Amino acid sequence: MRLAFYAPLKPPDHPVPSGDRAMAQGIMAALEHMGAHVDLASDLRSRDGAGDGHAQAQLMAQAKDLLPQIIEAGRTADWQAWITYHTYYKAPDLIGPTVSRALDIPYLAIEATRARKRLGGPWDAFARAAEDACDAADVVFYLTERDREALTAYAPKGQHHIHLRPFLPRHSLPAPGKGTRLLAVGMMRAAAKLGSYKLIAQTLALLPDSYMLDIAGDGPARPQVEAAMAPLRGRIRYLGALDADALEHAYSNAAALIWPGLDEAFGMSYLEAQAHGLPVIAQDRPGVRDVLYPRDYPSVNEGAKGLAALALSPAPAAQDIRAYITAHHLLPAAATTLSGGLALAGVT
Is 230 within a domain? Predict the structure, then answer.
């Protein structure tokens, strides 16, 4: 099986790390795990974060110019399907639907989203392109229930929708955690991240002094984070920005992850922590609930009081959490889901 892969927001070989790049890399690894040969069809980044109509027109022209050589590459390689990861109104797939039609092969989309409220606004051209990509897909893999609702509401007849659970790009679990401190993992930037840190500070203030916190992360909002944590001096340890190995060490030396999840799409840190068997202290929010081990989480309205109650409640057994991650959120499980979707599209 030979497949074309494309990630319009950020290609998997981009030099700057990010969650989106990691997910693209993970999807390619999962496709290869199921035995496919995967070609990166293009590294064109179509992102327009400013709503600039001129920039959108330029990117659409660049994509059009690339089409003949990509179509020819597809004929030479004998691609059996095209797979696009993360097409949305700020970074639509301007290539895949046209190439798929030209080659007469199935078009599959992973984490495609619809945002019809953007039609007519500064992202109108891109929002229409994102809608066209969703309409063109034979199969759409959705990552969260929130995405599924919009996709199915406007889906063309005969389109298949499959739940691809967010997953870690690994085949097996890391060593279980065995620490005593809480751990927070999050960049110190943007209003939502800062809001989560402030809520963590409020939660810790309601817990006994024996509850200590390590914070993995850094960024331009660190002074505001430190100000929010100031009343808790002596209970906070700042680890700074950590590389992958150091972050693994932090998880293995923690007792639980605390991250409220304000405005999170789903949050890979939840999966990483649970892979170590750590319970999660979070709110019941869209996206977040799609990756958490099933238990009673506080509602959004319960705020710090609810999070403190969750921290004090009996935690699930580490082996149960790890078994849940193995069954649903590791690379082999993702490969099985992707293989099923390709089979629905007639690719085996």
Answer: yes
